[in-house]
Amino acid sequence: MTPEALIHEVVVVPRSAFAPLADIQVIRRPGWMQIITPTFKGGGLNEVCCAVLDAADADAIIDRTIAEYRALGLVFRWTVGPDSRPHDLGARLEARGLVRHEVLGMCRETRGAALTGEVEVERVTMDRVDEFTAVMTTGWGMDPAPFHAYHRAALGDPERRHRLFLARDDSGRAVGAAGTVLFEKSAYLIGAVVLPEHRKRGVYRALTDARLADAAALGRALATTHARAATSAPLLERRGFQRVCRFASYGSG
């Protein structure tokens, strides 16, 4: 890919990595993409994904958007990617109390994943989806209630873009969870988490390698992801991922 095409695949394409939940609202117009999901009060599926604003109008739009989420009682985030404008958008969000997190847009080829077999990883079907939800929400410290419907919607999506994975320890207990969203040219790796008492035992590595191998088998040569610079990015670099770009996410809670 050209550098421009790679940036598009890493930054723009994953903005559509959501399942068709009944109450999700997706607002798209030139220079703007926003997601509002009233059932997700505590975080997730509430985001300004793209904002290209005129500097003179930015403050009014920021205030209106923040007020909209707060009126609904929603935790939300505002992603400021390489294509966001104005250039001081992040500073304007911080001035309103949103908390900045550094994010790396990363990618690697899917081939060559070194599957060790030390940790069992299975692909989740509908009969195991509640177990997946329990592990994922426990690991992230989130309310499981809205995710039960969401993960069922993901697996039931007629386009079959969403693939969910569970990792198990030697006793068969599920100790880690992760997902992939398939796009035409790439596989977007998302949401990997390991239960705290099972970290540093190769579970995260196994979930990553299993998803790479799965994507390669499905004909996706490129894997992309968005990783927190201070946490998951160093782990992914050790699995062969390279930084494509750096941007920021500003959270309300």
Task: Describe the 3D structure.
The protein is an alpha+beta fold and 253 residues long. It folds into two domains: 3-104, no CATH class; 108-244, Gcn5-related N-acetyltransferase (GNAT) (Aminopeptidase, 3-Layer(aba) Sandwich). The chain has helices spanning 3-12, 55-71, 89-95, 129-140, 145-156, 203-217, 232-237, and strands spanning 25-29, 32-36, 47-51, 77-80, 99-109, 120-123, 162-168, 174-182, 186-194, 222-228, 242-251. It has an eleven-stranded mixed beta sheet, with helices on both faces. α6 links the parallel β9 and β10. The longest helix has 17 residues, at 55-71. The N and C termini lie far apart (37 Å).
Assign the structural class, choosing from mainly alpha, mainly beta, alpha/beta, alpha+beta, or little secondary structure.
alpha+beta
Biggest sheet descriptor: 11 strands, mixed
Biggest sheet strand line-up: 1-2-3-4-11-5-10-9-8-7-6
Helicity range? 25-40%
| CATH architectural name of the largest domain | 3-Layer(aba) Sandwich
Give the CATH level 1 class of the largest domain.
Alpha Beta
